Target: Mitochondrial dicarboxylate/tricarboxylate transporter DTC
Amino acid sequence: MAEEKKAQAAGIWPKVKPFVNGGASGMLATCVIQPIDMIKVRIQLGQGSAATVTKNMLREEGVGAFYKGLSAGLLRQATYTTARLGSFKMLTNKAIEANDGKPLPLYQKAVCGLTAGAIGACVGSPADLALIRMQADATLPAAQRRNYSNAFHALYRIVADEGVLALWKGAGPTVVRAMALNMGMLASYDQSVEFFKDSLGLGEAATVLGASTVSGFFASACSLPFDYVKTQIQKMQPDAEGKYPYSGSLDCAMKTLKSGGLFKFYTGFPVYCVRIAPHVMMTWIFLNQIQKAQKKIGL
Model:
């Protein structure tokens, strides 16, 4: 009986391992990046440059403000990154099997990345909504603040005040943004690993660092326009007549394009890139270290 249970566990672990490793690496990266993410959201909400936002937050709210929404950020990684990295690994493994074990061409990796991003975003959208609202709360007039105490309180209040489906408010742009980000992040990482390792002959550490850097840049460049629209949709409040400034993500995109032009979507790109790229890099580095540690202990 004991041997049978061990065999069952051994059969389950390879299937859940990519999901566990993905979530753990994403959560570790979030703990480091959370302050930069907070500054990025404030810039997108029109509070000024990175230096201005940082100075004002320190003066008016204290150091703790940089970690406001950390619980939601961790919950988001536990859902979103667990789902996207785990599903990407499973999809690419299936594709490699169908390709007779040969390396996948870039377009197939991109398709796997797009699919994994959509899956992850659907699972992680409620936590993402809670994170955006908690980060934006201090920018609202006192009477309009929601004052969520943590991510679970935010989710409870959203369901109680707005209904269950409100947890997926802005899910459309969230999914599109995740598809763009993951196409850039996942496909470019795998492709870069092959280039640095096989073509340039770099060692493991240099390969991971180089591929992570390329992955972070493409993830940022592909996703920021969608992230901008997503943030605007998720933080909007109705006016005195109960009307919202945007009817949806397409309306938001068109109004933004009309009022500010194409480059408006890249508001805060340097900070966004500084936020996204290191998070992507650290996620891959943490994932690599987790996998090495598991290999040492035979997992």
Observations:
- The mean pLDDT is 85.
- The radius of gyration is 20 Å.
- The first helix runs from residue 2 to 44.
